[in-house]
Design goal:
- By secondary structure, the protein is an all-alpha fold.
- Helix content is 69%, strand content 0%.
- It is globular and about 30 Å long.
- It holds the Pfam family DUF3572.
């Protein structure tokens, strides 16, 4: 089982190789590639990163398959990093 921080870092590393998804994430957050290092330290950024992945099940499953991360680890990371205890698929 990965920690929440390890899971979030793995998501960011995976997104770095998925240019289209990374561009979409950056556009949605208003972050540019040059400020990612600073953004990582901001409260809520890592939770938002995990939430971004969870918002699209095919993307979530692609990440899990590519990184041997369980969906449960991603859900746990989301709960811990964003404070969400009742994530619902909308």
């Amino acid at each position: 089982m990965k920690s929440a921080d390890e899971t979030a870092v793995a998501i960011l590393a995976w997104l770095a190789d998925e240019r289209e998804l990374l561009s979409r994430f950056l556009a949605l957050t208003g972050t540019d590639p040059g400020s990612l290092r600073t953004a990582i330290g901001e409260p809520g950024f890592m939770g938002g990163l995990v939430a971004f992945l969870m918002d699209h099940e095919p993307t979530l499953m692609a990440f899990c398959a590519a990184t041997q991360t369980t969906p449960e680890d991603v859900v746990r990371a989301h709960q811990l990093l964003s404070g969400a205890s009742d994530f619902e698929d909308s």
